[in-house]
From TrEMBL:
Primary location group: cytoplasm
Name of the protein this chain belongs to: Recombination-associated protein RdgC
Presence of keyword Nucleotide-binding: no
Role this protein plays: May be involved in recombination.
Signal peptide positions (record): none
Entries under PANTHER family matching the protein: RECOMBINATION-ASSOCIATED PROTEIN RDGC (PTHR38103:SF1)
Subcellular location: Cytoplasm, Nucleoid
Isomerase found in the keyword field: no
Classification via NCBIfam families: PRK00321.1-4, PRK00321.1-5
Length: 327
């Protein structure tokens, strides 16, 4: 169990929910596969395939959102509806009107949905109830919101706030690059993106390229600001920090995974638990160090109480198109 990305949220100080309470509340929206007329279903799955929705290892919790879509491209529905419209026009002597076309599309959709393939995905979320962290393995905040939205619908209340720091990631990354030195405990790797703040939005990307020297400083002087920077923490975890304080391309290095081999887990479940324990242990060290490097945590940010207020209206889910990106 190794996350590839991390969208970081803060639980409030003194949050008192227990794993048993969370289990009971998640059970109210347990995952169900798509029915014959469902275009999408969402609900909570067991992270490990057993009956429990909250997996606990060493005081750390893991939950998983299941999402199932029917793969019915809108172009297929449109084509079939147009063919039926042509046949109908020959029968009645005139082209179908707007309302008839809408009814035709709905009829086609209802007929084709039960025959469409389904695709199922999982999105994992890590909860550290003592440290006050909620981290979602999602490549963007928009994708993480898929998980948070279902939490909002499921839990009675869950006050959350995005992690915010005194220094913005952009300004901190610019200082590190300009000075040619990473903050304590970190090293600067060889991937970076700098983007102009002017209207042209000119961008420069470095991949596996040394970032020290006058070239990168020249871009900074010209007004480009870093939006992504690859870093390594304590020679144990490498990642890309973004301007939105997202942690992407998480990679737990060999020195961490060697510990997993040394534990000698004998079955898949023990191996899963050992990996999760190692991952969360490293994240519990990484996140405070990253906050310190960014000037400390900004206090007093607004929290959104998921479940305490009505959830925003969600438009009816469209049938998924084959090739849509996963979480």
């Amino acid at each position: 169990m190794w996350f590839k990305n991390l969208q970081i949220y803060r639980l409030p100080v003194g949050w008192t929910m227990t794993a048993a309470t969370l289990e009971d509340q998640l059970a109210k929206k347990r995952f169900q596969p798509c029915g014959s007329q469902d275009q999408e279903t969402r609900g909570w799955l067991s992270p490990t395939g057993d009956e429990f929705l909250v997996h606990q290892v060493g005081g750390q919790w893991l939950i998983a959102l299941g999402v199932e879509n029917r793969l019915l491209p809108s172009s297929v529905v449109k084509q079939e509806a147009e063919e039926r419209a042509e046949a109908l026009a020959e029968q009645q002597g005139y082209k179908p009107g707007r309302k008839q076309m809408k009814d035709l599309r709905e009829q086609v959709l209802q007929e084709l949905l039960p025959r469409a393939f389904t695709r199922r995905r999982k999105a994992f979320a890590w909860i550290d109830p003592v440290g006050g962290w909620l981290g979602i393995d999602a490549p963007s905040q928009a994708r993480a919101e898929d998980v948070l939205e279902v939490l909002r619908q499921t839990l009675d209340t869950l006050p959350l706030a995005l992690l915010r720091t005194e220094l913005s990631p952009t300004s901190a990354m610019a200082d590190w690059l300009a000075g040619g030195e990473a903050p304590a405990g970190f090293t600067i790797d060889q991937d970076c993106e700098l983007r102009s703040v002017s209207e042209d939005k000119a961008a420069v990307r470095y991949v596996r390229h040394p970032l020290e020297g006058d070239e990168v400083r020249g871009h900074l002087t010209a007004g480009k600001l870093p939006t992504r920077l690859a870093l390594t923490f304590d020679d144990r975890v490498s990642f890309v920090l973004t301007e939105k304080l997202e942690v992407k391309r998480l990679d737990f290095l060999d020195v961490v995974k060697e510990n997993l081999d040394q534990q000698g887990a004998e079955d898949a479940r023990a191996l899963f638990d050992a990996g999760f324990a190692l991952m969360t242990g490293e994240l519990q060290r990484l996140l405070p160090a990253l906050i310190e490097a960014l000037g400390g945590e900004l206090k007093g940010g607004d929290a959104t109480a998921f479940g305490a207020v009505p959830a925003p209206a969600r438009e009816p889910a469209a049938a998924a198109v084959a090739g849509d990106p996963p979480f």
